[in-house]
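#struct-help
A.M.: can someone run this one for me? Single chain, 290 residues.
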Amino acid sequence: MSVISRSPKFLTLAAALAVSASAASLSAQPQDQSPADLSGSVTDTSSAMTKGPDVKGIISARTADKIKVATADGSSSIITVTPDTRINSGGGFLGLGSDRLAANQLLNGLPVTVKTMQSDAGLVASKINLQKRDYKVASMIRSGTEQGFAEQTAATEALRSRVADIGQYNVKSTTNVNFDTGKAVLSEQAKADLCQAANQAETMNNAVLLVVGYTDSTGSEELNQVLSEKRASRVVNYLQQACRWKPYRMLTPTGMAEADPAADNSTWEGKAQNRRVAVNVLVSKGLDGM
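D.P.: on it. Structure tokens below:
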């Protein structure tokens, strides 16, 4: 079940914006720096390997020889990229006249489908498929091209420099999508509501999305924090992959665990309302109406 409301709780949004701004400042570092969870030596691919799973999702982190792909179910896979990995853009192979990896082609926020092989050290990419239009968007985010400068300034660059204060934003709408206990799986109704929210936000100049995940009071605080973040990431993945919402118009997703319940956690009905992700459509007051 999904609920659309236009009166989000400002204190919760302020806290979520503070977390989002902090995470966004971290994401501003060069994308070829090595994230802590991707450290390690290059996988030895000389040993025998077997066919691995196909992994479809969005690149959430990368190093020189590894990518982390966040998948639609909220999980992630770390995959080694070798000089033999083929990168297919849907209209021909990328690269300077060869099929070999170019270091600036696999960017954070890029949707990919990866065919893998399984080695003793983990998954190794044999082929990476991506769409040219997605690559252009990811490139624009990284390089700040003249074509995307105005929109990017209204989103990514502006978000990194603003104080995380809800008073600086006009909240245009909030869409809540709900989840089963302990789950981060979107229902068909939730999927439809998310794309409807994205389509409505697309008609608003300079709109950005703030996605905040919540849980009910069942379970420990630690587990609920992880679950709320997983639900928020699942919604972000769907908005970007299925609803085609541009990554640089998205604030960093935030998990708030069981904070600020929407209803009474002592009842079954209340808990069902609290197991939610809120998609908030925001426009900076300084840009609203432009």
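A.M.: thanks! The chain has a mean pLDDT of 74.
D.P.: also worth noting: The first strand starts at residue 2 and ends at 5.
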